[in-house]
Amino acid sequence: MQEVRESKDLSFPGEEKRILTFWEEIDAFKQQLKQREGAKPYSFYDGPPFATGLPHYGHLLAGTIKDIVTRFASATGHYVPRRFGWDCHGLPVEYEIDKAEGIKSREDVLKMGIDTYNEKCRSIVMRYSKEWESTVRRMGRWIDFESGYRTMDATFMESVWWVFKQLHDKGLVYRGFKVMPYSTGCKTPLSNFEAGQNYKDVMDPAIMVSFSVEDDAEKAELVAWTTTPWTLPSNLALCVNPAMEYVRVQDPATGRVYIVAEARLAFLPGAVPKAKKGGKKDAAPAAGFKVLSKMKGSALVGMRYTPLFPFFAHLKAPRPSDSAPSANGGASPAAGAFRVVSDNYVTSDSGTGVVHQAPAFGEDDMRVCIAHGILQRGESIPCPVDADGCFTEEVATFSGRYVKEADSDIIAWLKQQGRLVSNERFSHSYPFCWRSDTPLIYKAVPSWFVKVENARQRLLATTAQTEWVPSFVRDKRFGNWLEGAHDWAVSRSRFWGTPLPVWTSADGKEVVVVGSVEELHKLTGHKVTDLHRHFIDGLTIPSPSRGEPLRRVDEVFDCWFESGSMPYAQLHYPFENVDFFRSSFPADFVAEGLDQTRGWFYTLIVLSTLLFDQPAFKNLVCNGLVLAADGKKMSKRLKNYPDPAEIIEEYGADALRLYLINSPVVRAESLRFRREGVQGVVREVFIPWYNAFRFLVQNVLRLEASGRLPTHMLPFNPAQVEAGPSANVLDRWIQAATRSLAAFVRTEMSAYRLYTVVPRLVQFLENLTNVYVRLNRTRLRGQGNDPMDCHTALATLFHVLLDTCKVMAPFTPFICELMYQNLRRALPKAPQSVHWCDFPETGPLQEGDEGIQASVEGMQRVLDLARVLRERHSKPLKQPLRRLTIVHSDKALLADLAGQLRQYVMGEVNVVEMDTCSDPLRYCNIKAHPEWQVLGKRLGKAMVPVGKAIQGMTFAQIEEFNQKGHISLGEHQLQEGDIKVFTEFKGPEGGGEGPTTMDANGDGSMLVVMDLSEDESLLEAFWAREVVNRIQKIRKAAGLQEGDKVDFWVTALREGEAPELERRLQTQREIFEHALGLVPYMQRQAHAVLVGTEVLRDSHEVAVTVPALHLRPAALHKVAGKDAPAVEAWLTSREPSALARELHAGQGSVSVALLTEQNARKSFTLQEGVHLHVPPSLQALASHAPLANGSRH
């Protein structure tokens, strides 16, 4: 294994770029696919994005989910081809060309030429494809761009034709009129899904208009309310609710008689007396309208009224006396326009209870008018508005005016005619075009439809065969949408798209639908390789029954029809890949955002159901929306979110991936994106994880260099550790936790519950770094006497990190590859990439796995409770305390805590003594308390007796509840959250609050009791730990590494305290040797090179120096006399390690030769331990032998 950098010197984004290069060099993705060829296929559909814009966080989120799931599928032994798709047709592309070329209307396109226009569209379709590819790859996603599908390719378009022909042959296609959301800016109808993308609060007129009832003795007028005055010239009927009460009222001031719903009378100006604002209190309110009569809405049905405008007066219903006789001699049913009809969609929530009907501009209006014979299905509909949203010549008075701008003119005309009853304005939410940002209108347009309404039950049955995560999206949002599904308008009157393969006669009575290029060739005599409009619009099909040729209809497919056809079209089915399609359909998995429930998910289900009575997919993951930090939609204009590229460059793709996945957005909820959240992943997950990995590498290299392992075990090979459970409890625990993690991830990922996986992964990493590594530092550093135990600990950590990389690889592919590339050096036969590895085997858990995990979890609870107690009493962790008592009713748990986990508990809590107690009542009172708010919502009145029963629970019942997580009290089953368990510390003697030096802390079932008293021995141990702490601070501040050799010194700053200091250093020898490897020296020598100093409690100086010889001046003076200073100068001038080697070679002695001023030669023999002392750091260098505790120097 190779040495690795500290995390502070590591750039995760920089390492990711190097890994991307590595993947390219080994062709990692393609090689993975090649290795899995022949394995069970796993089918995945990628929903196609537009390449006319750059990817945003929503794309990155969905792409991450797809990458995680497909990487996991590959790791679990599947062959997983992944093809990227591009949505190339539709409004987004045309809109860009319209802006660039200044195109304002359909006529502008025709002047330019459809061929020129379409080729301009083609030229920009893949404008940002390279940026997409770069971003997708930078996020670590493996997907095939080279053979990705494009909806504009002829093979894709031909399969779309095949789909449509299949539907037509099944009798599921028809041409008709449909009121649809219509964009006057883009001059095309939109789907309901598109219409819901861009709502804005606007001010619109809200007027009441009167319609004069014909042949009425009182000359009554029906009053209707509308917020779209521009639709009034197209009015053909008035609609009432047959069951509602209506009134005739008379305005005493004018004598006019009005008919409105009784419930809405107060909203008719002047109808109900109201006191004037600012008037006298005793002033009588103005007189209201007089109620002449009341009737049900059904009594109004059939009334005829005079049209407001003359434009469509010719459609007026004849008088009953003018009706033609029916076959049986009676009058025919009422027909024609300008009469009152009824429907239950009219409510009393707003308006007047009378709704004006303009069937060309309202979906309900159209339905009601056809149902009541105002119009006949299939007949033309009065629609005096052109493609640009302007009135046509049919409405001569307002011809050429944009409808929304004509509102004021129409209101003025109504006022002049005496028909304006009320004129107000109100604010409401109104749909705008998501592309042109112009107000939408609802408008009847000719369109080709796929019959969906009659297939609702089939769609629900098909959907029931699929699994959605989260399931409520399928059962609620999507299910409700299917129950109300309408026939699907699949055509658009546009240019850049897949043309409808429909050729008709001029009168539309003869229709031919083409299903393939070959069929088109046979019918037209022309062979084409491109199916866009400008290549096929001129082709005609000879009519088999009449002389005129059949010509193609003008429309192209809605791009949602294309994306819904992608399971077939991406494979050019049924013209190619028939066997592969049949083996891979339905897809195992799809994923997109919540907004696709009425988009791509819907079209996939509709087409697969109508074609095959099968779903298009088996499993679906639906993510929520990524919002700006303020909860608003991310906006480039507002710049309320950080650029994704900036986040990736600063923190790395892995951090962004894990942040997105470990959030509510994976449960189809919204995420408020925060930069700090991504930064937190690096700080709280990656750095501790990487530090554990680096800790392993450092200590493996140290062990290899130590010479303490037999030659046959070098270099380090974790496979040489004997099979079977380790003797160390924490080894067994982390191995069990790793097995449990792998089993959990496999189970949850198989169910596509990503939102449960990541929290468990994060918790495991927390346990690995903060429990296993931290508590095992001594073993892992080889500071014990048994090098084989160090080897076992390192092998355990190695395998845990290796399996963790394999488990985490689908989620964080870069950091796992980074670690794996070093780990695999110890396993020569390992695959070249972690992403070529199999997911860890997850057989049945081994015996004892659950028990050891429960015991270590119990230990962690003890440590947490003890930590809170220390904080409560301001007792720092370095200060030893007298005793810890652990109280719990589970004797097996206590046995583990007092046995194999004892050293870890005592070391972490820092206590001198520890005992356990299985009788909680000895130390505390335990009570159960009802959670009133929770119980009240669920039990209602039964909450009170159940609450009393909870308060009366015995200790045995409370124990049962703690162990099982539920309990039955009477007829009620109570769960966690219904009951809260309290422990009240009472001291060991069972009275009062116990000694003041004792305190306790509990969590309901576990109690820790601590003796907080102090004595001299504990204070001295605290002092020793503080000395160690200061030394470590100096080392860290100086940037020293663990292998760097240094000496430690403690010097008394107060006169006369040296003897006491020497005593303390010796009495606390165990603490110093365990933490530092030796006892610090006293009285730092002046010639030593200083690394740093700290002052402790104003009484002692703690110092760290570069290793140097320790001279003993008195002994030197005794042997050298007046030449002692010269001997000292010679000794301090020598390189310490060289002098140490000479002493070692001389078996502890060295000769010093001096030349006096008289050139006389003097020689002195110096003995190690008598005249000078060589510290262990230099002894190790001299003998080339490692220090037993050298890592501490």
Automatic annotation (TrEMBL):
Which top EC class applies here?
A: ligase
Record flagged with keyword Methyltransferase: no
One Pfam family named in its UniProt record: DUF5915
Q: Please report which protein family the annotation says this sequence is part of.
A: Belongs to the class-I aminoacyl-tRNA synthetase family.
Going by the UniProt record, its keywords in alphabetical order are: Aminoacyl-tRNA synthetase, ATP-binding, Ligase, Nucleotide-binding, Protein biosynthesis
Q: Which InterPro entries match?
A: aa-tRNA-synth_I_CS, aa-tRNA-synth_Ia, Anticodon_Ile_ABEc, Ile-tRNA-ligase, Ile-tRNA-ligase_type2, M/V/L/I-tRNA-synth_anticd-bd, Rossmann-like_a/b/a_fold, tRNAsynth_Ia_anticodon-bd
What's the protein called, per UniProt?
isoleucine--tRNA ligase
Residues forming the Methionyl/Valyl/Leucyl/Isoleucyl-tRNA synthetase anticodon-binding domain are: 731-882
Record keyword Nucleotide-binding present: yes
Q: Which GO terms describe its molecular function?
A: aminoacyl-tRNA deacylase activity; ATP binding; isoleucine-tRNA ligase activity; tRNA binding
**A GO BP annotation:** reproductive structure development
Q: Which reaction does it catalyse?
A: tRNA(Ile) + L-isoleucine + ATP = L-isoleucyl-tRNA(Ile) + AMP + diphosphate
| Residues annotated as domain Aminoacyl-tRNA synthetase class Ia | 19-671
Q: What is its EC number?
A: 6.1.1.5
